[in-house]
Amino acid sequence: QAELLGISVSIKEGEAAYVPVGGEGMHLERDEVLAKLKPVLEDEKIAKTGQNIKYDMCVLANYGVELKGVSFDTMVAAYVLNPAKRNYGIDDLTFEFLGRGKTSFKEVVGKQKTLAEVPIDIVSSYACEDADAAFRLGGKLKPLLEERGFAKLFTECEMPLVAVLADMERNGIALDASYLEDLGSGFESQLNELQEKIWRTAGGEFNISSPKQLAEVLFDRLALKPGKKTKTGFSTDVK
């Protein structure tokens, strides 16, 4: 449901352009701009690189543009290179792989509620910086995927999923509510049976979810040998 405020592009390091189509200040007519850009955006032969490009695909689709030729997502590439990272935002990736900082979204928006309320000159500078960073990151991450043997995984598995996930986010997925209700009832029945079995083995009812009560049953009532000791008592974890 995001509003398309503008489009920023970069085709060369250090150069980027921003076309405003909404928000504060002067801007071009959105429909006219999209009509001009649509042939390029929908051309599969023109490769596109982006950061979290799935989001761009969803927003453009809301305006009748099907983004094609999507070949590289810097966020997905960073994930493939290191799935254990906590943050794959463009600010973090720019610092990690390009060795420099960049203006953050929070710095741009400030006390404003939305990006649409920010003056167009500030938005333009921020958007161009983002586009340039994504372009540079693409050039940096592609060879890293090759060097570390992840190029095939990225190209054949991860990138094709981007379009699929974009469609799922826009259209939703169908669920069989009746089947899920039956499944839930079945799981609940199994859990109740397991609970009864545990109580019979323990010789009485207790709160299975309580580590304290569980420890009393295991180590006092059943006299099992305790494992490692924690700050609150013996651990009841099982590996």
TrEMBL record:
Identify the keywords attached in UniProt to this record, alphabetized: DNA replication
Q: Which InterPro entries match?
A: 3'-5'_exonuclease_dom, DNA-dir_DNA_pol_A_palm_dom, DNA/RNA_pol_sf, DNA_polymerase_A, RNaseH-like_sf, RNaseH_sf
Pfam families per record: DNA_pol_A (PF00476), DNA_pol_A_exo1 (PF01612)
Q: Provide the 3'-5' exonuclease domain boundaries.
A: 1-146
Cited SUPFAM superfamilies? DNA/RNA polymerases (SSF56672), Ribonuclease H-like (SSF53098)
Report the record's Gene Ontology biological process terms: DNA-templated DNA replication; double-strand break repair
Q: Its Gene Ontology molecular function terms?
A: 3'-5' exonuclease activity; DNA binding; DNA-directed DNA polymerase activity
Question: What is this protein called in UniProt?
Answer: 3'-5' exonuclease domain-containing protein
Species of origin reads marine sediment metagenome
